[in-house]
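Why should sequence recovery work at all? Because a backbone constrains its sequence more than one might expect. Tight turns favour small or flexible residues, buried strands favour hydrophobic ones, and helices have their own preferences. The token representation captures these environments compactly. In the example below, the structure is given first.
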């Protein structure tokens, strides 16, 4: 199969541009004719250049604008066309225009965004599909924006807390490296002579580090690069994303914050879906899709399937690791009292408040923790250099 680029006119005389996959130009022309398009230009498409992911701020603005357009009743394809004309970034403008062209050519939403999964966040196409199918696209996009803003605020807190110690640590690493390369080796024979060649373990370790400081930093750089590449590779598959989520969920403070953020978004999405007439299993599945969490998606599919087989919500939720019992109990109680939508909105607010409290705790803990770590490293280095002198003074005092 090859990809062909075309320019065509619709029956209403509107110009359309896009791509189509076919075995030959004749098959491509026949397929376009079947779509009731009058083809003006049909040629083999040039290989697309690898595009980088959409920036967070750029995507947040795009999503907010799309939510406003859909709230005003503008169809998704038309809304994307309008946004493509209004986006400042040339690459983003082309990306949105290509998605709109695919939708106008009859491609499903999930497929149109799935072809560009490296540029858009994971599951974004499925979130849009869920919103269109339930008639609540604007509410789903607004809920997504709130989640993205909360996640962005958390990242800013982490960055602000880490940046100052990171600068200090970098400067300290440069200074310590200079000392280990040029100063410490000069004192090594003196220190050994002072105490008869028997250095204490801490000083010996520091001197050994001074002899190998460059290979150590090279090793650290390789480890950091390997970690970055590993996490990037994990993001390419659902199983990899679930593994990353499992790591985040195990982190103190950060794990709870991340979990509360996901549950808040899922509860709000489920409230919108229930209001649109979805049953509980469908609301669970689509609500998990809107959260963007692979683990939550897997748990919700498992719970929804058991509910459809007649199992109660609480019993079905026993096998779900990410859905807390309180969440499931509130859903079951709301369904029994015909207050499910209100209960879900309350759950969303509760988990959002807990996430904000987690952000405050993270801000209070992270900076002092990093500064204490840096101070400990510096203190150990200083102590290692002074220990031989302390040993000599102590021995002289004892001899006197």
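From this structural description, the recovered sequence reads:
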């Amino acid at each position: 199969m090859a990809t062909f680029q075309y320019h065509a006119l619709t029956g209403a005389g509107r110009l359309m541009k896009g791509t189509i996959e076919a075995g030959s130009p004749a098959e491509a022309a026949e397929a376009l004719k079947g779509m009731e398009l009058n083809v003006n230009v049909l040629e083999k498409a040039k290989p697309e250049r690898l595009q980088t992911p959409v920036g967070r701020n750029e995507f947040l603005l795009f999503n907010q604008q799309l939510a406003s357009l859909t709230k005003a009743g503008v169809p998704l394809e038309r809304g994307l066309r309008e946004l493509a004309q209004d986006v400042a970034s040339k690459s983003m403008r082309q990306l949105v225009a290509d998605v709109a062209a695919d939708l106008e050519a009859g491609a499903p939403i999930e497929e149109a965004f799935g072809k560009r999964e490296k540029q858009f966040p994971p599951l974004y196409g499925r979130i849009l599909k869920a919103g269109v199918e339930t008639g609540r696209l604007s509410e789903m996009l607004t809920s997504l924006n709130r989640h993205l803003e909360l996640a962005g605020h958390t990242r800013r807190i982490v960055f602000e807390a880490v940046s100052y110690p990171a600068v200090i640590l970098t400067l300290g690493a440069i200074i310590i490296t200079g000392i280990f390369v040029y100063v410490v080796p000069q004192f090594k024979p003196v220190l050994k002579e002072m105490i008869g060649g028997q250095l204490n373990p801490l000083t010996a370790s520091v001197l050994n580090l001074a002899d190998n400081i460059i290979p150590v930093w090279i090793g650290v750089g390789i480890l950091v690069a390997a970690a970055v590449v590993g996490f990037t590779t994990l993001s390419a598959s659902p199983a990899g994303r679930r593994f990353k989520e499992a790591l985040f969920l195990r982190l103190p403070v950060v794990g709870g914050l991340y979990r509360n953020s996901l549950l808040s978004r899922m509860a709000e999405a489920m409230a919108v879906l229930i209001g649109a007439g979805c049953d509980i299993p469908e609301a669970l599945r689509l609500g998990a899709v809107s959260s963007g969490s692979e683990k939550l998606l897997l748990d919700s599919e498992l719970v929804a399937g058991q509910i459809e087989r007649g199992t109660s919500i609480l019993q079905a939720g026993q096998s779900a690791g990410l859905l807390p019992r309180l969440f499931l109990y509130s859903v079951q109680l709301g369904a029994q009292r015909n207050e499910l939508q209100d209960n879900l909105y309350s759950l969303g607010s509760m988990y959002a408040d807990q996430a904000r409290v987690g952000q405050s705790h993270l801000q209070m803990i992270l900076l002092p923790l990093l500064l204490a770590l840096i101070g400990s490293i510096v203190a150990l280095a200083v102590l290692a250099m002074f220990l031989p002198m302390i040993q000599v003074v102590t021995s002289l005092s004892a001899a006197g």
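A few observations help interpret the result. Strands lie at 2-9, 15-22, 38-44.
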